[in-house]
Amino acid sequence: MLNGLLGKKIGMTQVFTEDGVRIPVTVIQAGPVTVIQKKTNEKEGYEAVQVGFDELNEAKARKVNKSILGHMGDNKATRHLHEFDVSDINAVEVGQSFDVSLFEVGQIVDVAGTSKGRGFAGVVKRHNFGGGPQSHGHRRFKRSTGSIGQSATPSRVMKNKKMPGHYGNARVTVQNLEVIEVRPEMGVILVKGAIPGPSGRLIEITKAAKG
C-alpha cells in the first residue's frame, strides 16, 4: 500500500467524545489519487509510485501540453503529481485508485503543507524578538532589530542572522497527529489539531515517521 495521500485542507471544527470531551480537528479531503507511474529498482534505482490528484475538467485538460498528457496515458489529467513510498510495488498497478480507506481511526500521521504567506515582516513578528524599551528616550529602538554586526573580528554580519524578511509561504510538517474519524462516504478524515496553510491548500498526509 501507499505510504500516504495527497489532499486538501477543508477547515477546522470540533467533535465530542462519548465522555463529552471536546477535540479540535482539521477536516481534510484525502484523495482519491490515481497511480500514474510505477518506479522500480531496475529502471529508476528505487521503488515508489507517482500519483495524480485533483482531476481537471475537460476545458482545463485541453490546456495541458501533450507531453504531460502522454505521461498520464489512459488516466485523466490531474492538477498535481506526487511520489509516495510503497510497501510492495508489485501490489500496485497503474490506474489504481486510493482513497481515505488507506487510514484508520487512531492512526498517527504526519501532515505537510505550505504555511500562509505573510509578506515582509519585522523581527518581532517573524522571529518573536522582544523589541527594545518602550519608555521615553527609546523612540528609535522600539521594534527594530538592534545590533547585527561584529567587532573588528570578524567585522561582518554572520550568515543566517535573524533579520526582517519574507515571512511564511514555506513548507511546514506537523508530526504525530492522530486520526480522529474517517468518513469514506464524504472522502474526508478528521485529524486532531491544526495543520499548516489556508483552507483549500494542497497538503500531504503520510504515515508517521516517528510513530
Please give a structural write-up.
- The chain is mainly β and 211 residues long.
- It folds into 2 domains: 4-118 and 172-207, Elongation Factor Tu (Ef-tu), domain 3 (Beta Barrel), CATH 2.40.30.10; 119-167, no CATH class.
- It has helices at 58-61, 66-72, 123-127, and strands at residues 4-16, 22-30, 33-39, 48-55, 78-84, 97-98, 108-114, 120-121, 165-166, 171-183, 188-192, 202-207.
- The strands form 3 sheets. A 6-stranded antiparallel barrel has the order 1-2-11-10-7-12. A 4-stranded antiparallel β-sheet has the order 5-4-3-6, with no helix packed on it.
- The longest helix has 7 residues, at 66-72.
Mind summarizing the main beta sheet?
6 strands, antiparallel, barrel
Low-confidence stretches: none
Sheet with most strands: strand arrangement: 1-2-11-10-7-12
Order of helices and strands: EEEEHHEEEEHEEEE
Q: What helical percentage do the residues reach?
A: under 10%
**Strand portion, in percent?**
35-45%
Q: What is the alpha-carbon Rg in Å?
A: 23 Å
Q: Can you give the mean pLDDT? A: 91
Extended strand count: 12
Global morphology: extended
Q: How many angstroms does the end-to-end distance come to?
A: 17 Å
Tally of DSSP helical segments: 3
CATH H-level superfamily title of the largest domain: Translation factors
CATH fold group of the largest domain: Elongation Factor Tu (Ef-tu), domain 3
Number of domains: 2
CATH class of the largest domain: Mainly Beta
CATH architecture of the largest domain: Beta Barrel
The secondary-structure class comes to: mainly beta
